[in-house]
Structures are given as C-alpha cells and as structure tokens.
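User: quick one, fold this
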Amino acid sequence: MKSTIYLLSIAVIALALYAFDVRSDNQQLQQTIHAQYTNSLSNASEKLTYLQQSVAQSLMFQDEKALKNELDNIWRTSNELRSSISSLPLNADVANQWLRYVGKIGDEAKKASVNGDYEAWHEKMEVVNKNLEQLSNEWAVATAQFYENDGDFNKWQQVAAKELDDSPFKNVASNLKTYVEQDFPLTASESDWKKKQELQDLRDREITKEEAIAVLERLLPGIKDATYTVSKSKEDAPYPFYHIQFVKGSRVGYADITVKGGHLLSFLSERPVQPDKNMTQEKVKELTKEFIERAGYDDLELVEMRENHDVWHIHLARVAGKHKAFVYPDGVQLKVSKDSGELLGLNAMEYVQREKINDQQPVIPVDWKQFFRPNTVVEEERFIYTENDAFDLRLCYEVIARFEDNLNQTYRIVVDTENHDVLNVEFLP
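Assistant:
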C-alpha cells in the first residue's frame, strides 16, 4: 500500500513538473510571438511614416536627379512596408487593402522613374499625399491599443481578433477602400482581366447536377458508377459551379464544373500509383490526345511535358490567330499517372475564360544576331500571346537561346513583336 501511494505521489509530482514546463514553454513562446508582432508593428509604422514623408518630399522637386532619388526611395519603402504588413495578424480586409494601396504607390513611383513622366506623378500624388497623411494618422490611433497591454499576449490577441466593425482599424479599412478606388481606379485592361478572372462572361445554358455527373463520366470513363456527393457554390459566388466528390474503389477525388455550360474547371483524383509500371512517353501523349478530343479541346496543342517518379505533368495551350500563336493564358494543365496513363489532375479554368486576342498587332522582325551578343545561339522561335504588367495580352516572340560554349545555360526569352520590349527571361534547367 505504501509503495502504491509512493508511486502515485511520484506520478503526480512528475505531471505537475511537466505541466509547469509546458506552461513555461507556452509563456516563453507567447512572449516571443508578442515581441515579434510588436517589432513588426513598430517597423510598419516607421515605414509608413517614411513613405508618407517621401511622397510629400517628391512633390517639392523639379530637378530630375533629386526627384528620381525620391521615387526610388518610395518604390523601395513601399515594398518594405508591404512585407511588414504581411507579417502582422491583421483583419484580412485591412491587410489586403493596405497591400494594394501601398503597392500602387510603389508601382507609380517605379513607372515615373523609368518613363520620366514626372508631371503625371506630381498630378496624381497631390491627392495621394493628402490621403496618405490621413491614413498615417488613423494608423497611429489604431495601433496605440496594441502598445497598451503591458506585454500581455492575450490582450494583444483580443485586439487583433476583433471583427472589423469593432476593430480599431475600422476607419483605416473604410478610408483605404475609398482611397484605393479614387486614387487608383482600374484601367480598362485591368477591369477586363478582373471580369475574366470571375468567369462572369459565360452565357451558356445552365445544367442540372445529374448532367454535371454525366459530363464528368463522359470525360473520365474510369470513374463511371462511382458514389457521388454533389454540392453547389454559395449564392453570392462570382460564378456558380457544382462541386462533385466521388469515391470508387481506391479512387477518391473531386471535380468542379460550371453550372453554365457544364465546363470542367478542375479535377483531382487520389489513388495508389504502382511505381514498377511505367508507360512510354509516346503512349501518354496518345492518351492525352484522346482525352482532349473527348473534351472537345480541338484548339489545344502540347507545350511541354515534365515527369517525376509517379506522374507526368503536361501543359497544353490554345493556338489561335493568323500567326498560329500559343495563347499561354488559355492553358490547360494535366497530371497523368505513369503506371496506366490515367488522368489524376486537371486545371482548365484559364482555358474556359478564353482571352480575346488582337490579331492586328504589328509584327516587326527582329535580327537576333543584333539583338543578342555574338556568343548566343537561337535554337527555337515561335509566336505566343502573353500578358504584360498591365494585363494587356500581347503577341510576342518566344525564343529559346543558349550560350554557344555552355550547353547548361539555356534561356527562354519573350519579346513583344511590336515594340521589342523584353517581357520575360527565364532560365531553363
């Protein structure tokens, strides 16, 4: 009996010590996180003050060198401020509005610095400067509550977790939304891009849940007669779609199909892959061709294939226009098993959105021998459509080039056919 009591006492003491250690560790972790958040908050406030001062100072200068220096400071500080804001546990709406507004200021500074359009910068920043000063003051008031908790992490959390209507950032969020829309209205190309992102331009007939399942089974005969669970997107969704979950044997997966027209947006299937069985690349290409024919993707062509241990990752793109150019934004990505050639994954949202191409964009030839240094070899050239920084779809040359004396340094370069701007340079492993 005494030994039993002794052992129980030891156990109780051990548990108490363990609980004390855990509590100490939790307190230490909370203190560390609190210090990190407080430091990020202080850093964000400092960067915001510096950004506001730099914008104000830029309005004083007409000298090109002095103004360019301020513009570079604004661009750099805006990036640093966005980084600080991203590391804070702010309400998502507040954080997103801040990131967009500050990012727009940085983008305008970079554009003015590069293009030398200082008059446009001064005109736009007259308003932004006043609004940014107001936001800085409101930010100072809102963040004061975070410093009034004597290092108490629980109080810090309570302030951060408040709903936006009760949050100290309520005024900041409201004014940010207004200022973003007033100071940086969407351009026509951005507006068109946003619209396509939400698939609001679909005008097809609406289908039923049963028809959505029929579409899925036609495209993927391997899951026919599976057990299905079908739900519909929320009423306020930008575009309605059916979310289909299925189970058949070892296969478990889902698919999203638009209510309008029954377009397959995405598909994912999980099942064991047999690593000792591998189909040839040509056979996988053949099965991929059969699938795109079943799906009616008659304007798609293969762009590239990459493999890992279990699957092939295949990228297809729409070919359109008089130049038979690859429309990269209208792509379809496939994941195909190496053991049977079965489709395990698909993303076709971009293809369903379908960009409107400008077939009248001028095509001015490029002398690649003059464009690149003498040691550069152009291995491949083709036409593609891709978006520039302003979301405008541009016809471009896609060039695969390498250094003559180094086969391991190969690059993909994208050059606008009209103005010969370089839109992208990518190292190919």
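User: anything notable?
Assistant: The chain is about 45% helix and 25% strand.
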